[in-house]
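Bench notes, afternoon.
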Amino acid sequence: MLAVAGKGGTGKTTVAALLVRLIQENKLGSVLAIDADPNSNLAEALGVKPKQTIGEILDKIARDPSRVPAGMPKERFIEYEIQTAIEEVGGFDILTMGRPEGPGCYCYVNNVLRNIIAKFIKDYGYVVIDNEAGLEHLSRRTTRSADTLLVISDATPAGLRAAKRISELVRELEIKVQKSFLVINRANLKDQCRALKNRERLVGASPEFLGFLPLDRKINRISLNGNSLMQLENNALAWVALRKLKDKIL
């Protein structure tokens, strides 16, 4: 399982989408992409329009409990509905958390998502989770374990401090992570020099610094046009840089 986390605005969803593409293009195994961010941008980045989100499923059942068939436990019906909500796209599947419309917190949605992840993970070679921006998803323990945690930051001190806090929270909550890496995204050469100086002071040795993904105008253009990152040209700077990190990440 690959989990992607970071402060809002650092490009973590872009990195998550490119990881799905990386696994698919290298034919490494089946992939389930999970958009665990209520803002639900991963599907769009992958060129998919979700039929139904987990939040929408739970809202429908809350508004009309009679939807649950007689004799079937509610939890089993929810699991069935979520299974049907998984989009099967060429080369990968995707499941979207979404944002519940009704009042209340995301605790129940997160519990459902956590249980679904535990059940579905064995059916896929890879699971890529785009987590909610910030620290809330970790404090709710949506992600209890990961083979690799990619903490995405930009070159700013605020982004680096958030990366350090994410790493600390993972240890405090005893989330089982085999490998944890810091990736600094959207960095030009000037940003890279500044970030290298600030990283040691603001982040320290954990998570391990993996590398930079440069600021990429081609990604910006795709995002502005609402197109899929699956259409990103192979010579795009960030894509070339990520492919060089493949062996460590995967």
